[in-house]
Write the structure tokens for this entry.
Amino acid sequence: MLATLLDEYGLDDVEIRMDTTFNRDLELESIDLVTLAGLLEERYGNQVNFAEFLADMDFDEIIELTVGRLVEHVVASLKAAEAG
């Protein structure tokens, strides 16, 4: 999903690791996070609620959001949905 998003900016050769930040490292803006939320919903439906995830954060946490933290959220959300 990130590759799709980054490809739009010509950043398809950027190395993405768990500690990569969306804002500082990838230089994504809030509209890009909205796009990412749409991609997550497309892929996982209501199982992964990105907007709710961000709503629990303050501004500084959103600015420092890492790929790893999002991955952890996705994994936890999917496990919770699986457990029912």
About this structure: The chain has one domain: 2-83. The longest helix spans residues 67-83.
